[in-house]
Every structure is written in structure tokens, then in C-alpha cells.
Amino acid sequence: PRPVIIDTDPGQDDAFAILLALAAPELEVLALTTVAGNMGLAQTTDNARRIVELAGRGEVPVYAGSARPLLRDPRPVPEIHGETGIDGWDWVPARQGAAPGHAVDYLVETLLGHPEKITLIVLGPQTNIALALRRAPDIAERIDQIVFMGGGFFEGGNMSPAAEYNILVDPEAARIVLNSGVPVTAVPLDCTHATPAPVNWSAALAAHGSEVMRACAGMMEFFERYGNAKYGTASRPLHDAVAVAALLWPELFTGRLCPVDVECAGELTTGMTVVDWLRQTGKKDNCTWLNGCTDPGEVYRRMESALARLGR
Ligand code: BDR
Ligand code: CA
């Protein structure tokens, strides 16, 4: 299996992404690293522990990382994800805490020490990854690829007309990552909005009966409520889970390799991902920008059968 580290700020959709990665025989999840994003760092770290334990995979270590973006203030969003960040399920407290050491140290040491190149799945603000790349630039060669959920170009943003949440929270970090020379695949709103979950998916999940599936159903219901009210749709995409799906099943997604950068100084557009889709800048291609999904139903069918294999 392909070794991966998941950098995350759970988040209901992060939870689905993590559970899908844990369930996928194609992936070996070495660890989770956490970052301040949807919630503060202590909460996202505790949430990450609860998620691996729910999956029956408590042996997967969770390393706590950055409590603040590189230059800006944190922006927790309880109005989207609820007071815990993973509202919708009555979580039991985590049995174990974070592993000792900082996530950035863990990333650097593991990337340099592991016999194989490692894929990074990045589901929140990109602070930890940017810090690791600055701290030890040599790690760039040890990263197989970075797959991140973030940005939006054809769809615009979800926090401002121009900016998507993960990029807006730490645009400087995203800029460092995109300009690092590491092969990057972006799973932006352009792609996730083209990959909505089936209508009433939560009921189908609950029908499986296992604890994991009932937790997923509860989180899905909570997540849908906010999204559907804002967007006026009958179902919502699970953004971060779509990023893991795109890594697992690239044949179900469309996109293009092209130059991508991040606006960090715009008056109206800070946090915008600027995608040179028509290659007009003459800059080097640095990112595979996913812009669509050929079969959303199939994505969620595969996700559901993977999740059903987990836990009790
Ligand atoms: C992204 O922002 C967060 O709220 C979600 O977890 C996802 O990573 C979507 O814009
Ligand atoms: Ca997230």
C-alpha cells in the first residue's frame, strides 16, 4: 500500500476522509497531523484521536501541529461544524492523547527516514506542511505528492467571493506549498461541488447499523443542514472525503496540469487560488487542478462500501 500522512483539522468532512483512508487497502496511514482550522488545535487534535479510535485504529498516532496560521489569526467556524467541529454524533472521549512531539518534527523526521516516498493528504490550512518545507527543504524530494482540498477558481470561494476556507485561513502557507516543486493535486470547490453526496445519504449510512456508520450518518446530517441552507441544494459534497476519493479513484475525476498560485495581498481577493487554466502566464506547471467528477454516484457508492468495513 501507498504510505500516507493525513494533515487535518476535523471537521465532519475531514472525519469521512480519515475513515475512508483508514478503510482503503490501497493506503497505509502512517499518522495524522493536526492543525488549527475548523476549530482550535486542542479540539482538532482530540477530534482526530476520537476518529481513529472510532475506526478501531487507535494505534495510528496523532501529532499536534500548528496552533496558528503563519501570519494571520485563526478562524474557527463553529457555525459550520458545530461546537466540537464534529457535531452530529455523541462521541465518547478519546482514550489516548496526542503522540509526543510536534507534527512538523514528525513530518520532517518521517519523510527523511522512511524508505519510500510518502504522499501527504492535506485537509485543512496548510501551515504544518509549509513549516516543514521551510524547516527542511530536503523533504520535498521525499514527498511522492501532495493532495490537498482547497481553493476554487471556476466556482469562486465559500468564505468570500474569491476564497475557499482552507486557503483563506493561511494563504501564505498554501503559496509555499504550491511553489515547493513537489507534485501537487488540488481538489478545489470546482471538483467537490461537482461531487455532491446522494440525497438523504445519511439514512442509507445509518441503515448499515454499525457504530461507525451511525456516527457517519449523524455527522452527514449535521453537515448537510448547514450546507443545504446556504446553497439551496438537496445534498452537499463532503469536500475532504472527495480529496481522498480522488487519490484512490483518479479515473472518476477530471482536471488539468497547469500553473497555480495564491493571491496573498488582494484587497478583495486574498486567499484566491489563481489558476492559469489556459497557460497564459508562461509559468511552470505546478499543480493538477481537478475541476470535475464523471460519476459522483459511483464515488459515494465506493465510499459507503469502504466505510462499512470499519470498526464495530
Ligand atoms: C474545507 O473547509 C473546511 O470547513 C472543511 O473541512 C474543508 O476542509 C472546505 O472549504
Ligand atoms: Ca478540513
From TrEMBL:
Isomerase in keyword set: no
Cross-referenced SUPFAM superfamilies: Nucleoside hydrolase
Cellular component GO terms held in the UniProt record: cytosol
Domain Inosine/uridine-preferring nucleoside hydrolase: 4-292
GO MF term set: purine nucleosidase activity
Gene Ontology biological-process entries: purine nucleoside catabolic process
Keywords: Glycosidase, Hydrolase
Entry-linked PANTHER family: INOSINE-URIDINE PREFERRING NUCLEOSIDE HYDROLASE, URIDINE NUCLEOSIDASE
Name of protein: Nucleoside hydrolase
